[in-house]
Amino acid sequence: MAHQPPFSVRSRTEEENGSLACVRLLRRLPLGARGVQTTADTTQLHQAPSDASEPFTLKLHEDSFQTYNCPKPDLEVQVTKSELLEMYQQMTTMRRMEMAADALYKAKMIRGFCHLAIGQEAVSVGMEHGIEKDDRVITGYRCHPFAVLRGGSIKGVIAELLGRKGGMSQGKGGSMHIFTPSFFGGNGIVGAQVPVGAGAAFAQQYKGEKNCTFAMYGDGASNQGQVFEAYNMAKLWNLPTIFVCENNKYGMGTPAERSSSNTAYFTRGDKIPGLQVNGMDIIAAKQAVAYARKWAVDDQNGPLVLEFVTYRYGGHSMSDPGTTYRTREEVQRMRSTQDPIRGLQRYLEEWGVATEQELKAIDKEAKATVDAAVAEAKESPEPPVEDLWKDVYFKGTEPQFLRGREREEGKRFY
Amino acid sequence: MHPPSSTARRVLNGLSKHRLAFQRRANSTAVEPPPAGGHLPGVATSQLLRPTRDAALRTPGIKWKDEDNSTLGGRETRKMNTYQAVRDAMAIALAKDDTAVVFGEDVAFGGVFRCTMGLAEEFGKERVFNTPLTEQGIAGFGIGMASMGHTAIAEIQFADYIFPAFDQLVNEAAKIRYRSGNSFNVGKLTVRTPTMAVGHGGLYHSQSPEGFFMAGSGLKIVIPRSPIQAKGLLLGAIRDPNPVIFMEPKILYRSAVEQVPIDDFELPLGKAEVLVPGEDLTLVTWGTPVYHCETALHVLRSPSEELESLIPASVRGAKVELIDLRSILPWDMETIVESVNRTGRLVIVHEAGAIGGVGSEIASEIQKRCFLKLNAPVRRVTGWDIPVGLTYEKFHIPDAIRVVDAIIETLTY
């Protein structure tokens, strides 16, 4: 387990604010004070199961979490073999899907804006394994893996990116607006989704549902006024909202320290407690999400701010090479030492869950699945022109006609 | 060493293309994705642009703002596209006005459309700086600076994101002079933002929100159509003693290229420009649709084979007067009224939706003032009253065909 973290993490004194460990940077990195360590493979096997159907007991690295006014999650985690394999399969498939979208965009089949989550798979897959089917998730525009994992399909997402009828929003939304019954998108305006998430949580509480809502946003969005408005409402009314900050260190081209006076995003909830998690280690991610859910739903402690420290290898979107504001070496280093999929692969091989060949087979299968979905998506036709007028208003309550040219092209509904 | 001959250059270009193609096959990250700001190829051949120095120096309405008393012949121009012209305007403003600062999201490295390229290096990071991701904060902060006498040039990264700032702009910036009895004002505030559709922007990178701000009396709204216009109008806007929202059509950032005078000059706010004189119909528009209208006029005059049958011969000789409104608030009522009184017909083209759009304001004023001179109802060609669906963008924008159709309908009413 020899991957060195890129910086050593040490507390200056015992009296120092416990939630912010002092970081000594070994290399010049635009990272600022970072609480948790972000390697993907420092979880240790505590106890292998004697029987294949029994769960593994794992011990997370002690620097996987930093807390703010809440108890630390248990560092001992139980996972079954099938769950670990499922995590690996899902992360690999999501990465393949994002890479397929990358290729399609460069081939000019996907137009518009395309924000890929390559490198951040542990957050989406870890979240999926920590929550229930009926919990709600809402996020910003880096949403493709969530759309698939929350009940969507790869073909639905790719077809939506291509602007086809078979897409999950019938081709009218595109990359940023993909929805499922438990996933409220996919939102283009930065930060706008956070109060919406708080509102959804209110409804869950009001209806007595044993569920919560994960309102996700990034380090850039954390400075939006409406995020703080949502914090206040959630704490005031004790709403089961988990505010999830996916801190990938850059808000488009701006490093976190240059945009935020307080880069410890998990502390920005003021009276709302917070938890900072290593977002590159999927076991830690899953444990944090499960802890947050228990906090909000079972213990009814109200909202929690959950910060995942993660990284994206690509640029902000397909128009951004991603190298004008950070060095290629930094990206390469994160890719080679802290990749969540490679980290999980190490776990699986070292704990005897799967052999290299078996994992390669999963990789191949993931590629085949994605290729098949892409082919199917390409077959899907473009939406008909009549759909241009559909769903502006509730069917049957539209104004008499939506203006266009006076004669044929204006849409008369009745 | 001799420079390579043209043959050699062609061979080398061909080879490098092959190399690039090989790299493309082996490694897809070498391929450049298409530009986010879009590209409108038709603009390159537009007659409305001024691609020569002479034409550029004779731009109507130019007011030179430096002490250079040399004759017109002595002034230099440089080939620039719209984002370079915008950059040039801001550089001049920063150079001449010590209190001028430029701020917004990601402007320090050059901005997502390169409008602030190199400004931070040239003028310092204290004068050209990034803000956090907070539009409402940016607008409010700019208002505060301007009320202290600083020239504040704020950027909202896309016009679609201006809505969190709407309250600050309409409730604060527009009303400060009025409510304080002229003891305070924010005339030194200019808010720049890229606007209008590019063809693939989807719901939140394609909007034209100028209509929403028309009700903000106290604000001015300006929309340029080309590099010379952008530079002159932006300098005019920065120096105008009222808060101005300067909306730059993003598809024209790269598509429109002209010879732009490098000196300090301004173009007047509140005045429209007659681009093509005419007598049979007035066509009013601004921003990107200016070029669609130009195409429409060509199609009207000499339609292609497929369209021949659809355009009656009687209208082909019609002389349409094309007017670029340039300033949306306050809009040049005088020029439009004078024109419609002559022609008797008006067609207004804009990308925003029809309901409550700028065209509705213009149409109602014109019908009031020119009622007896009108030979046909005022016609608007606009985007549909729907969000801009991703795949539907080419149907959403008012293109040349729809404009031609409106012109014919109005001419034959």
Name the descriptors.
heterodimer; A: 414 residues; alpha/beta; Rossmann fold; 2 domains; six-stranded mixed beta sheet; three-stranded antiparallel beta sheet; 11 helices; B: 413 residues; seven-stranded mixed beta sheet; 37% helix
**% residues in beta strands of chain B:** 15-25%
Order of helices and strands of chain A: EEEEEEHHEHHHEHEEEHEHEHHHEE
How much is the average pLDDT of chain B? 90
* Quaternary structure state of the chains depicted: heterodimer
How would you classify the helix and strand content of chain A by structural class?
alpha/beta
What can you tell me about this protein's structure?
The complex is a heterodimer of chains A (414) and B (413). Chain A is an alpha/beta fold. Chain A has two domains: 56-383, Thiamin diphosphate (ThDP)-binding fold, Pyr/PP domains (Rossmann fold, 3-Layer(aba) Sandwich); 387-414, no CATH class. In chain A, 35% of the residues lie in helices and 14% in strands. Chain A is built from eleven helices and 15 strands. Chain A has helices spanning 81-106, 121-130, 144-149, 154-162, 193-206, 225-236, 256-259, 282-298, 328-337, 340-350, 356-379, and strands at residues 7-10, 22-25, 44-47, 56-59, 65-68, 76-79, 136-138, 213-218, 241-247, 250-251, 254-255, 274-278, 304-309, 401-402, 411-412. In chain A, strand 12 (274-278), helix 8 and strand 13 (304-309) form a beta-alpha-beta unit. In chain A, helix 1 (81-106) crosses helix 2 (121-130). Chain A is globular and about 65 Å long. Chain B is built from 17 helices and 16 strands. Chain B has a seven-stranded mixed β-sheet with strand order 4-3-5-6-8-7-14. A five-stranded mixed β-sheet of chain B has the order 11-13-12-15-16, sandwiched between helices. Chain B has 413 residues and is an alpha/beta fold. The chains are: A alpha/beta (414), B alpha/beta (413).
